């Protein structure tokens, strides 16, 4: 053993050092090598140890001699330390095997034959271990307990299903294959069966055996509610029934026909006699009881359905016998429905509905008379429903009256609606064209147009599409004539008189500008902040405001033909007028020059574009300087950051450590250096372990409570600020969905209308609780852009 500067060097260190070239043999090199070796042996992490153990076990599994000299060079770890790590792992494995044997033996002793599984809660309490750890220690290969086989869903009792659901919800954070292996040990069933029943709990699917079991229950007269309690895999009773019906409908039809119960004429007659003897108005219980007892050889559900169908045919169907009887009783007793119902052996509501069916059966007509439409209008004004309206009209069904009421309501002008007018006159078409021309084709107020024309919205949209296609087809026929006339004028005098073109072709001047495709010799605008004149841009603005006022969509082909400038140049100039600019090197150089002269960003923005906001100029200016000042970090400094973090992360506070590392870096600016250090620290195992120890949920709750800032909390936990900000961002992204519901949008619109800008989006997001301030701001901008506010 050699000692140097208070450090003891082992033979392994000397062997490694002797491998260095002779030209490096000096005191400085030796001292640097000593520090590197000491750091490597001292800072071996648990990940390295785990990797080392996996490699050693692989050699032992293949019965290969372990090459210790290679492992020493690979992991930079002394031979004695490696043997010690191996011995500790051997001891751990041996203790775990002994504990597994004891857990397995105790589980066999606590096996309950009635329940068919072990009392694992008692095992966990006796050994003082978590339940999942005891299940993982259980060795099924050495146990005498045989796992139960339950391949079919009907093999699972409701009690075991509830126990499994409770175990998964309480102990398993995810239903992976390994976790379900623990669940199968807990329930003492085969692993495949446990996976199958878990899939049924998460995504239930109707199977053949389950369908047959449900069908048997229904034939025995069980209610759907009771069957659903026996097989509680579907979240609701409606979904359970729907799945059963869908599976039944997909079965071969021949099987249904073979299994269909056939009723003879004598059996049907006997059912009628039972009803006449035991049926009472509003109560079929006694009749059903007698019928099921008498026809015990048939499925109970089929007998009950037959009784109901027979009752409906006898008393509720509007056949000739019932119609004559109810008419005679109404003529005798008037509309005394209780008395009439008692004589017809049905309830008052049933006899009233039967009377409506009988009255409409012989009085229904197809067309609508003016007096009938007037009755419907009065019903709408007085708030009367379709059923009463059908009775008042007397010649229309309830559904027909409901359709007419909807048609009148959609028109929004019931007094002026002519239900017989399906033809569009030339005046109506002209009015439709005039009304739609006041809007952009993407933002037409159809409700306003429907109200003005007295027609439905759907009819207006349909006719507008037809007229638009006709107009487009008609105008496309003038394209060649307009192009020819424009080319003739341009070749004669190098300019085009659009008024003359309009008179020659026979269209308006604006239509000629929009249709003309002749573009030979058009100019191009090149924006230069020093030499550019705004006269042409102002001329273009005046033309757009005169011909395409908001919200009408601008036709830039017409603008291009009017200005005789390339269409792309016109679009770029319009963007520039709106304050949307492309930051070229020349413009940035001009901004830097004016800024050096002491000019404010507000004045600089006006020189570039009249509508350009000063914040955009400021952002472009600072981004330009950030790109110039940016200096990347060299690979050597990156390696140095990692080494210093590994060495001092556990012993030195992060704030001091970051300053300590920055002082030793030779490349990059200070901002780049601190950012790189924070990025490496985010994924360092020491800081990740500290965050896990503090608890991510507790940290997020402290930040959201607002009692402590992120920076102060980072100092308290000795963590980089970037870790906490990233954690908070991820938490918000999980809790705050990007999708806005109708209620959330309504609340935002109410808030924006009730307050004046600038809005406090942070306060609004706190009140809403489901969206961040930035999400609220983006949603407001979207609504404002689409003219929804």
Automatic annotation (TrEMBL):
UniProt organism field: Coemansia reversa (strain ATCC 12441 / NRRL 1564)
Protein's recorded name: Myb-like domain-containing protein
The Myb-like domain, residue ranges: 732-784
Membrane-spanning segments: none
UniProt xrefs under Gene3D superfamilies: Homeodomain-like (1.10.10.60)
Domain of life: Eukaryota
């Amino acid at each position: 053993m050699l000692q140097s500067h208070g450090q003891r060097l082992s033979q392994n260190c000397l062997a490694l050092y002797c491998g260095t070239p002779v030209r490096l043999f000096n005191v400085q090199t030796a001292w640097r090598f000593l520090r590197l070796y000491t750091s490597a042996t001292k800072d071996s992490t648990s990940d390295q140890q785990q990797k080392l153990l996996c490699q050693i076990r692989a050699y032992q599994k293949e019965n290969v001699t372990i090459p210790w000299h290679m492992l020493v060079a690979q992991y930079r770890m002394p031979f004695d330390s490696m043997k010690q790590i191996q011995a500790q792992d051997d001891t751990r494995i041996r203790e775990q095997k002994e504990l597994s044997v004891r857990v397995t033996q105790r589980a066999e002793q606590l096996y309950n034959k009635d329940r068919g599984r072990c009392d694992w809660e008692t095992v966990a309490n006796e050994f003082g271990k978590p339940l999942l750890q005891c299940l993982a220690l259980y060795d099924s290969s050495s146990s005498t307990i045989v796992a139960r086989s339950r391949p079919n869903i009907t093999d699972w009792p409701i009690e075991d299903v509830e126990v499994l659901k409770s175990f998964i919800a309480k102990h398993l954070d995810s239903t992976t294959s390994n976790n379900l292996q623990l669940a199968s040990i807990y329930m003492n069933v085969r692993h495949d069966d446990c996976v199958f029943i878990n899939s049924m709990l998460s995504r239930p699917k109707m199977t053949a055996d389950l369908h047959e079991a449900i069908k048997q229950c229904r034939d025995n007269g069980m209610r759907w509610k009771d069957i659903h309690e026996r097989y509680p895999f579907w979240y609701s009773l409606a979904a359970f029934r729907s799945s059963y019906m869908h599976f039944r409908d997909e079965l071969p039809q021949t099987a249904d026909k073979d299994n269909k119960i056939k009723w003879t004429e004598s059996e049907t007659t006997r059912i009628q006699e039972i009803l006449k003897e035991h049926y009472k108005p509003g109560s079929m219980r006694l009749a059903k009881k007698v019928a099921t007892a008498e026809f015990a050889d048939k499925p109970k559900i089929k007998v009950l359905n037959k009784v109901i169908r027979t009752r409906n045919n006898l008393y509720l169907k509007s056949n000739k016998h019932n119609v004559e009887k109810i008419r005679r009783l109404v003529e005798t007793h008037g509309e005394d429905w209780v008395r009439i119902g008692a004589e017809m052996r049905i309830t008052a509501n049933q006899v009233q509905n039967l009377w409506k069916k009988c009255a409409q059966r012989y009085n229904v007509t197809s067309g609508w008379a003016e007096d009938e439409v007037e009755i419907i209008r009065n019903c709408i004004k007085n708030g009367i429903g379709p059923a009463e309206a059908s009775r008042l009209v007397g010649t229309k069904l309830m559904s027909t009256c409901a359709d007419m009421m909807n048609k009148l309501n959609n028109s929004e002008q019931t007094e002026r609606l002519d239900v017989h007018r399906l033809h569009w006159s030339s005046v109506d078409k002209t009015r439709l064209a005039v009304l739609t021309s006041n809007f952009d084709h993407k933002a037409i107020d159809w409700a306003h147009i429907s109200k003005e024309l007295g027609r439905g919205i759907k009819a207006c949209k349909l006719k507008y599409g037809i007229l638009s296609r006709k107009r487009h087809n008609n105008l496309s026929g003038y394209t060649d004539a307009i192009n020819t006339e424009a080319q003739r004028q341009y070749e004669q005098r190098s300019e085009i008189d659009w008024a003359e073109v309009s008179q020659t072709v026979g269209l308006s001047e604006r239509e000629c500008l929009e249709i003309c495709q002749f573009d030979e010799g058009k100019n191009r605008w090149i924006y230069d902040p020093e030499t550019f004149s705004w006269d042409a841009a102002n001329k273009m603005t005046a033309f757009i405001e005169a011909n395409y006022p908001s919200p009408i969509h601008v036709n830039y082909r017409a603008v291009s033909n009017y200005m005789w400038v390339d269409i792309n140049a016109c679009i770029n100039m319009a963007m520039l007028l709106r304050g949307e600019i492309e930051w070229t090197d020349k413009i940035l150089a001009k901004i830097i020059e004016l800024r050096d002269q002491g000019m404010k960003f507000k004045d600089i923005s006006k020189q570039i574009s009249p509508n350009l906001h000063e914040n955009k100029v400021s952002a472009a200016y600072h981004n330009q300087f950030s790109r110039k000042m940016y200096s990347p970090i060299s690979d050597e400094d990156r390696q140095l950051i990692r080494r210093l973090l590994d060495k001092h992360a556990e012993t030195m506070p992060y704030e001091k450590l970051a300053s300590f590392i920055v002082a030793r870096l030779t490349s990059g600016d200070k901002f780049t250096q601190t950012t790189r250090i924070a990025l490496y620290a985010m994924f360092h195992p020491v800081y990740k372990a500290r965050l896990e120890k503090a608890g991510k949920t507790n940290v997020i709750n402290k930040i959201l409570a607002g009692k402590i800032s992120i920076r102060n909390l980072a100092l308290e936990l000795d963590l980089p600020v970037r870790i906490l900000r990233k954690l908070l961002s991820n938490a918000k992204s999980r809790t705050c969905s990007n999708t806005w519901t109708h209620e959330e949008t309504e609340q935002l619109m109410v808030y924006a209308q009730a307050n004046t800008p600038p809005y406090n989006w942070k306060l609004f997001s706190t009140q809403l609780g489901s969206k961040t301030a930035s999400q609220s701001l983006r949603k407001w901008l979207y609504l404002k852009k689409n003219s929804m506010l």
